[in-house]
TrEMBL record:
<dbReference type="InterPro" id="IPR027417">
    <property type="entry name" value="P-loop_NTPase"/>
</dbReference>
<protein>
    <recommendedName>
        <fullName>RecA family profile 1 domain-containing protein</fullName>
    </recommendedName>
</protein>
<dbReference type="InterPro" id="IPR020587">
    <property type="entry name" value="RecA_monomer-monomer_interface"/>
</dbReference>
<dbReference type="GO" id="GO:0007131">
    <property type="term" value="P:reciprocal meiotic recombination"/>
</dbReference>
<keyword id="KW-0067">ATP-binding</keyword>
<keyword id="KW-0469">Meiosis</keyword>
<feature type="domain" description="RecA family profile 1">
    <location>
        <begin position="92"/>
        <end position="263"/>
    </location>
</feature>
<dbReference type="InterPro" id="IPR010995">
    <property type="entry name" value="DNA_repair_Rad51/TF_NusA_a-hlx"/>
</dbReference>
<dbReference type="InterPro" id="IPR011940">
    <property type="entry name" value="Dmc1"/>
</dbReference>
<dbReference type="GO" id="GO:0003690">
    <property type="term" value="F:double-stranded DNA binding"/>
</dbReference>
<dbReference type="GO" id="GO:0042148">
    <property type="term" value="P:DNA strand invasion"/>
</dbReference>
<dbReference type="GO" id="GO:0000730">
    <property type="term" value="P:DNA recombinase assembly"/>
</dbReference>
<dbReference type="GO" id="GO:0000150">
    <property type="term" value="F:DNA strand exchange activity"/>
</dbReference>
<comment type="similarity">
    <text>Belongs to the RecA family. DMC1 subfamily.</text>
</comment>
<dbReference type="Pfam" id="PF08423">
    <property type="entry name" value="Rad51"/>
</dbReference>
<keyword id="KW-0547">Nucleotide-binding</keyword>
<dbReference type="GO" id="GO:0006312">
    <property type="term" value="P:mitotic recombination"/>
</dbReference>
Length: 314
């Protein structure tokens, strides 16, 4: 009997699991190797891999002009390769449950792959707790509203705690050690280090089934490494490059990207708002995120987000 999914009275997701083995779900991005099944020569596929192109999604991010620049690939070959890749790229968005019924409903089913979801709010508003919950729920099979994949976690503020994963895994009826084994963790110390970690992830994601990338927080190191208005333009340019890389990873490997963001004082917030705040990063970050969630503290252990309420333990 397959595991079933249900919500309790508080809106928490709970799973009833038996000892049967869950069948492996289908991979959600198309490896470049699959072009061979579409009649593309294996030698030409090897040339693409040598050029750093590991998936069909990644292939479609290159112009035909740049592809013909690869030694041994003629214009006719490139046309045939692109046509084959387009045939393979027939996939739907995967929605990963947040573990909170209210938040899932607000998001239309959960955190989406192929895009960036940003959560911003003050300290202890639930951003990192949601990241820890997603580390677990992403590993659920697709039919249980998970992503059936691994998680990459880039930590810029030292907020990741393996011990916080344990009770979440138990709540979902999963083995905590197995869950932790499927989380690839890296601590970033500068904005350059953060960007280089993203570059290294591409090859890793081409080899293993990842479904979620977390950056907690995306802005912290930029605020440290760039200070004052004199460096603001350069900071925003580097931030835009980072966000562009995150978008490409989301689209190339069909992963959900969840980023947390800090808030800053908003002098133009209005006279009727007490202590107005706005997300850091300006328009660059605002345009990059497909979905933006504002989190704030509610009563007791509750956290309030744009139109929905979730428990802090979710």
């Amino acid at each position: 009997m397959a595991p079933s999914k249900q919500y309790d009275e508080g809106g928490q997701l709970q799973l009833m699991m038996d000892g049967d083995r869950i069948e492996e779900e289908e991979e959600c991005f198309e490896s470049i190797d699959k072009l061979i099944s579409q009649g593309i020569n294996s030698g030409d596929v090897k040339k693409l891999q040598d050029a750093g192109i590991y998936t069909c999604n990644g292939l479609m991010m290159h112009t035909k002009k740049s592809l013909t620049g690869i030694k041994g690939l003629s214009e006719a070959k490139v046309d045939k390769i692109c046509e084959a890749a387009e045939k393979l790229l027939r996939k739907s968005v995967v929605r990963i449950t947040t573990g909170s019924q209210a938040l899932d409903e607000l998001l239309g089913g959960g955190i989406e792959t192929l895009c960036i979801t940003e959560a911003f709010g003050e300290f202890r508003s639930g951003k990192t707790q949601l990241a820890h919950t997603l580390c677990v729920s992403t590993q659920l099979p697709l039919h249980m509203h998970g992503g059936n994949g691994k998680v990459a976690y880039i930590d810029t503020e030292g907020t990741f705690r393996p011990e916080r994963i344990v009770p979440i895994a138990e709540r979902f009826g999963m083995d905590a050690n197995a869950v932790l084994d499927n989380i690839i963790y890296a601590r970033a110390y500068t904005y350059e280090h953060q960007y280089n970690l993203l570059l290294g992830l591409a090859a890793k994601m081409a080899e293993e089934p990842f479904r979620l990338l977390i950056v907690d927080s995306v802005i912290a190191l930029f605020r440290v490494d760039f200070s004052g208005r004199g460096e603001l333009a350069e900071r925003q340019q580097k931030l835009a490059q980072m966000l562009s890389r995150l978008t490409k990873i989301a689209e190339e490997f069909n992963v959900a990207v969840y980023i947390t963001n800090q808030v800053i004082a908003d002098p133009g917030g209005g006279m009727f708002i007490t202590d107005p705040k706005k997300p850091a990063g300006g328009h660059v970050l605002a345009h990059a995120a497909t979905i933006r969630l504002m989190l704030r503290k509610g009563k007791g252990e509750q956290r309030v987000t744009s139109g929905g309420i979730m428990d802090a333990k979710d």
